[in-house]
Design brief:
cytoplasm, ten-stranded mixed β-sheet, golgi apparatus, alpha+beta, 461 residues, four-stranded antiparallel β-sheet, transport, single chain, AP2_Mu_C_sf
């Protein structure tokens, strides 16, 4: 066996075996492993002198990972993933434009036939609010002293995939969607018959908020409650705070001299506070909101605040876990070289929740996690390393649900805090407008009420 040492002799002390790197000692074999041999000799000789190292140490030094190389590969993979996301969005936009074109060419029967079907519960207008005239109890959105709306917008599915698997893992790992499979089979059968199908949409966390539609009724009253909740990962409530507002928007000056009669659900934990310009005695005795000076009109949309004026505020705080609309349990467990994460939600029967998005932080991954089971849809945000679990509607048919996914070994604290977003069309105060009283006499003016419960900051820590 041919050996080499730094003294220039063949054999001798501390020999370094060429066959460790090249098993063929001819010119072709040495040429193929030239770089490996050079690196090995570089570890042996320093400034013309022999280093006191063994063969095992030389191999170890040559095989050590480079932090810079590893970082470069991670940055390169991140750019590749971002490029793939852009390609998917472009493909989705092209698909959408083709569908819009097909709608005009084929009359739209295939489009409309499934517009209210999708996942089985998507209504024709699965929007941020419903509006009722007169004394009706429609529900919608509004802000404290203005009329802004916080509603998650929707994104269309990726190109060429059925709605139920639009976010399926790239390596073919299955995703269980429970109740939507029969609907998906029906969709596929319609596609096979040549029908043009409008693809499902799903809520996506972090998208821009949509604005409230402009009011069309002479008077619009908006009830909005914002939730700030912090839940403990081991159970219990760290913080639960509800802040609500009732605001008024009047379009025409002739309807500005009014009083608003309300009723509440009698929740003892809700504390109400009227605007300083309101008649406190009238509100306390008769639940009527009116100005201290009855001859003074409310501001209108043309002359006053275009977003409306605040009439009433309220607040509710609690540490009782039973009042929480949605609880999340997360169970990470390491098994071998993988971490199995099981997440379960349980929803209160008091609220039907819409556009639910549960965002779970993940360790830095080179590819999407393997989702083994899920009730709903999922999406992996590679840029922020977050797994988003989306449920369009939680009602009496699915008050509980679960998701299980697998990632490489990671500490359990990596998966917290979990952020939650949703909206509902009923509130903790259960405040309703029962009548609008004109102070000038005559028939009561037409009005509408919008009511909405939204999450401002909802986390499991």
């Amino acid at each position: 066996m041919y050996t080499y040492n730094t003294t220039g002799n063949h054999g001798g002390a501390n020999p370094y075996q060429v066959p460790e790197y090249s098993y063929s000692l001819d010119e072709e074999g040495i040429g193929k492993t030239a770089f490996e041999l050079i690196f090995a000799f570089d570890e042996i000789i320093s400034l013309g002198h022999k280093e006191n190292v063994t063969v095992a140490q030389v191999k170890q030094y040559c095989e050590m990972e480079s932090h810079e190389e590893k970082l470069h590969k991670m940055v390169l993979q991140s750019k590749i993933n971002d490029t793939k996301d852009v390609m998917k969005r472009k493909a989705s936009e092209i698909d959408k434009s083709k569908i819009e074109k097909g709608r005009g060419d084929q009359g739209g029967f295939g489009l409309m036939s499934l517009q209210s079907m999708g996942s089985g519960r998507i209504e024709d207008s699965f929007s941020d609010m419903s509006i009722s005239g007169g004394g009706g109890g429609g529900f919608g959105s509004g802000s404290g002293f203005g009329l802004s709306t916080d509603v998650e917008s929707f994104s269309s599915k990726s190109k060429g995939r059925p709605p139920s698997s639009a976010t399926a893992p790239p390596k073919g790992l299955g995703m269980q969607l429970g109740k939507s499979q029969k609907t998906n089979q029906f969709l596929e059968s319609l596609k096979a018959e040549g029908e043009v199908i409008l693809e499902d949409v799903q809520p996506k966390a972090g998208q821009s908020k949509s604005a409230a539609p402009p009011p069309t009724d002479p008077i619009t009253l908006t009830v909005e409650e914002k939730l700030n909740v912090t839940l403990k990962r081991d159970g219990g409530v760290s913080n639960f705070d509800v802040q609500g507002t009732l605001s008024l928007q009047i379009l025409n000056q002739e309807d500005a001299q009014i009083q608003v009669q309300i009723e509440t659900g009698g929740n003892p934990g809700v504390l109400f506070k009227a605007h300083p310009n309101m008649n406190k005695e009238l509100f306390s005795n008769e639940n009527i909101l009116g100005l201290k000076d009855p001859n003074r009109p409310f501001p209108t949309g043309q002359g006053g605040d275009a977003a409306g004026v605040g009439l009433l505020k309220w607040r509710m705080q609690s540490t009782d876990e039973s009042v929480v609309p949605l609880t999340i349990n997360c169970w990470p467990s390491v098994s071998g070289h993988e971490t199995y994460v099981s997440i379960e939600y349980e929803a209160s029967s008091l609220f039907d929740l819409r556009n639910v998005v549960i965002a779970v932080p993940l360790p830095a991954l080179r590819e999407a996690p393997s989702v083994r089971q899920i009730d709903g849809e999922w999406r992996y945000d590679s840029r922020n390393s977050v797994l988003e679990w989306s449920i369009l509607l939680i009602d009496n048919s699915n008050r509980s649900g679960s998701m299980e996914f697998v990632v490489p070994p990671a500490d359990s604290s990596v998966f917290f805090p979990i952020s939650v977003q949703f909206l509902a069309t009923n509130t903790f105060s259960d405040l309703k407008v029962v009548n609008v009283i004109p102070l000038k006499g005559g028939a009561p003016p037409k009005y509408s009420q919008r009511t909405q419960l939204i999450t401002e900051n909802y986390q499991v820590v």
